[in-house]
Amino acid sequence: MAVVKPFRALRYTQKAGDIAKLTCPPYDIISEEQHSSFLAESPYNIIRLELPRGENPYAAAGALLKNWEAGGILQEDTQPGLYIYEEEFKASEKTYRIKGVICRVKLEPFERGVILPHEETLSKAKEDRFHLMQTTYCNFSQIYSLYMDPQHTTRARLDALSRDTPRYEFSDGTVTHRLWLVNDPVAISAICADFERRRLYIADGHHRYETALNFRNWCRDQGVISNEPDYCMMMLADMEDPGLVVFPTHRLIHGLPGFNREALLDGCRDQFQIVHIPGVQAISEKLADCYASGQKAFACYCGGDEWDLLVLKDLADMDAALPDKSAASRGLDVSVLHTLILQKVLGIDKENMAKQINLSYTRDMDEAISSVQKGESQCAFLMNPTRVTEIRDVAAAGEKMPQKSTYFYPKLITGLVMNQMDILC
Question: Do you know which Pfam families this protein is assigned to (predicted)?
Answer without folding.
Answer: DUF1015
